Amino acid sequence: MLKSLRARLSVMVMLLMALSLGVLGVWLTTELRALLALIVGSLLAIIYTQAVRKPLRLMAEVALGIANGDFHRRADVSGPTEIRQLARALNNMADNLERELHRVQVTAEKLQAVLGSLRDGVLLIDNRENIELINPRAAEMLGFNVEVVLGKRDTLLLRHPELSELLRQARREVSACYRRILLGGQAVRHIRAAVLPLESKRMLIVLQDLTEVYTAIDIRRDFVANVSHELRTPLTSLGLMVENLLRGALDERDVAEDFLRRMAGEIERLTEMVMELLQLARLESGQEELRMGGFLAGELVQEAVGTIQGLLVSRRQNVVLEGEPELSLSGDREKLKQVLINLLDNASKFSPEGSTITVGLREHSHEVDCSVKDRGAGVLPEHLPRVYERFFKSSPSRGGGTGLGLAIVKHIIEAHGGSVYVRSKLGEGSTFGFTLPKKSEMGSI
Ligand code: ADP
User: Fold this and answer.
1) Which residues does a 6 A CB cutoff place in the pocket of ligand 1?
2) pLDDT value at 440 more than 90
3) For residue 301, what are the contacts with CB-CB under 8 A and spacing of at least 6?
4) Average pLDDT in the chain
5) First and final CA of the chain: distance in angstroms?
6) Rounded distance, CA 134 to CA 110, Å?
7) Which among 245, 255, 230 has a CA at the least distance from the CA of 393?
8) At 316, is the pLDDT very low, low, confident or very high (cuts 50, 70, 90)?
């Protein structure tokens, strides 16, 4: 403001000088007048140039700043009209650029947030096969470091030939291509890869992790195979015995009685398995409600022991209670009793006649612990992680069970918010047990 005032004053002084010289010129010679006019003109030109040069230089600096990414600088709107117009235009352009840049930044942040939270892997490949964009999930699935692979061409080709092949196919066919591929080292993941060509000749790759789905399919297939297998054995032996009876064994009373006894045993086993399967299905589908209540753990143990008293007597085994029988449990009484029966039944079946089974009841700060310890042959260490699986039988010939008992135990205990465990030493015996939270919450299985 001050500067422009000074510039104007200088122009006025010059004009006054010119006027006075003009008046003087009446008495001067023609040559002198021309010289004076030239001097005044030159001075005026210098002053005008000064007034224009400075704002122009500042504008150039602002423009350069914008070109280098500094969108906050603005030009000084002063000087002659044209210069002011130019400065305003430059400032408008800077405003627009700044707004646009902010919009782009916000969009990029949103995209980043969406890509970061996706469960699917997403990659964008440019037309020279460089990785242009990769979200954290895709990097995790492909074993890539995002910082390292961005902009790299050979990473996909070298490390994931199946994916590169799919990429080439999609480029050739100019249409979306899909394939199920396996990724990962030790823990193999089943991935459904989709490659979609975009208009810009870029390729969008979407990776869906379907491992859980395939695992569920495998479990169902195994389950059906296991059930069929478990049913086939008793059914075949029943069929054979009926055939033998019809072929004449019926006439020999002793033989016939033996067959019928064995048939009754097979039928009992089949019935038990069907009942257990039904119970497992109900537990897994969440149809069974927990009827919660409070009761003494010692009493429940006595009831469970009473239920299998016949087996214990026939095997001359006795059960001793250790710990705190007065401990109170909170849960579904009937289901927890069934858990104890299953554990005691196994302990009896898998330990020698005349041995002792110990039930331990202990209280910790947040949970209660119930264990059933036997002095049997124990479980092979490699089988320990699998004993609670459905249909798992470590020694089928000796137990003759269905392999479903412990799976039911695990379901019931986990539905109570507890967890199961097993400890075993070959030749010394096993301890199967569970812990329950002190106050189980009401809920459905
Ligand atoms: P089942 O007893 O009907 O075979 P379970 O699910 O109860 O089915 O047990 C699964 C397997 O775990 C058994 O077949 C057996 O190999 C092993 N197991 C269970 N309890 C014991 C135990 N107390 N001692 C040794 N092995 C056991």
Assistant:
1) 342, 346-347, 350, 374, 376, 379, 387, 392-395, 399, 401-407, 430, 432
2) no
3) 319, 321, 325, 340, 359, 361
4) 86
5) 82
6) 15
7) 230
8) very high
Per the rule left: phi > 0, alpha: psi between -120 and 50, beta: everything else, 396 is alpha
**Ligand 1 nearest atom to the CA of residue 390, by list position:** 6
Whether pLDDT at 160 is above 60:
yes
Amino acid symbol at 257? E
Nearest alpha-carbon partner for 415 in 325, 343, 322, 331 = 331
Residues 289-309, mean pLDDT to the nearest whole number:
94
Query: Which of 383, 394, 409, 431 has the most ligand 1 atoms within 8 A of CB, as the residue to mutate?
Result: 394
| Pick from 86, 106, 442, 72: nearest CA to 294 | 442
Residue whose Cα lies nearest atom 12 of ligand 1: it is 387
Question: Of 350, 359, 413, which is best to mutate to test ligand 1, by the most ligand atoms within 8 angstroms of its C-beta?
Answer: 350
Ligand 1: centre distance to CA 311 (Å): 16
> Could you read off the pLDDT of 66-97 as tens digits, one per residue?
888 887 888 888 878 888 888 899 889 989 98
The neighbouring-strand residues paired with 437 are 367
Q: How far, in Å, from the CA of 360 to the mean position of ligand 1?
A: 19
Other C-beta atoms lying within 10 Å of the C-beta of residue 233: 13
**Cα three-residue angle 411-414-416, rounded to 5 degrees:** 115
Q: How far is the centre of ligand 1, averaged over its atoms, from the C-alpha of 306 (Å)?
A: 21
Collapsing DSSP to helix, strand or coil, 438 comes out as coil
Counting from 1 in the atom list of ligand 1, the atom nearest the Cα of 342 is 7
SS3 356: strand
**Residues making up the chain, counted from first to last:** 445
**Element of type H or E holding 205:** strand 203-209
* 169-201 pLDDT tens trace: 999 999 999 999 988 766 788 999 999 999 988
Residue 13: per-residue pLDDT: 56
Pair of tokens at residue 76 = 């000084």
Whether residue 6 is predicted with pLDDT greater than 60 in this model: the reply is no
Instruction: Report the alpha-carbon distance of residue 163 to residue 168 in Å, rounded.
Output: 9
pLDDT of residue 5: 47
Q: Whose CA is nearest to atom 3 of ligand 1?
A: 401
- pLDDT bin (cut points 50, 70, 90) of residue 400 is low
Put residue 144 in one of left, alpha, beta given phi > 0 → left and psi -120 to 50 → alpha.
Answer: beta
**305 C-alpha vs ligand 1 centroid, how far in Å?**
18
Read off the pLDDT of each residue in 305-326 and give the average, rounded to a whole number.
95
The share of the chain scoring above pLDDT 70, in percent, equals: 90
In this prediction, residues 309-323 reach a mean pLDDT of 96
